[in-house]
Amino acid sequence: MSDEFFIKYIKENFVYHPNGKLTRTDRKNSNGSYDKDGYLIIKIKGKQFKAHRIVYAMHYGYFPDGELDHINRVRDDNRIENLRLATRKENTLNTNRKPNEQTGVVGVYIDKTKGLKKKYATKLGGKSHRFYSLDEALEMRKRYYKDSKEFLKHG
Fold first, then answer.
1. Which of 5, 7, 91, 143 is positioned for an S-S bond with 86, CB 3.0–4.6 A?
2. What share of the chain in percent tops pLDDT 90?
3. What is the per-residue DSSP string for 56-119?
4. Mean of pLDDT values over 26-55
5. Are residues 74 and 139 both part of a single domain?
6. What is the domain extent for residue 134?
7. How confident is the model at residue 154, as a pLDDT?
């Protein structure tokens, strides 16, 4: 079944409430269940959808290709004003991460690789980068994330 089929079905069989909740009109007591990550999952014609993607499709008429970010980081707050399109990088920035215990900085750790003079490391874009000082590592992270400031909730 195509996306068009599911969008038509959703528009005909779901009611969106201003608090972000969805109500099904095609059956009783079938408003979904939560997955292990805290997202509400709703089954439609044997296919599973995350509720926030259903809400987005109801409002905009299509399922986004990329990811949707919950602005306030509450995974079951599916109000349309709390949802925004995001790249994977942007979506991972909008998380609660604790600072590294040794460096006091999110995403920068002390590199314990033998034989290296560089002391600090950070992972950016799936690659590790090593630095002689904490300031260098922080500057690299700042440059890497400069275009994603609205999503950055840590480091």
1. 91
2. 44
3. HHHHHSS--SSEEEETTS-TT---GGGEEEE-HHHHHHSS--PPPTTTSSTTEEE---TT----
4. 88
5. no
6. 96-148
7. 47
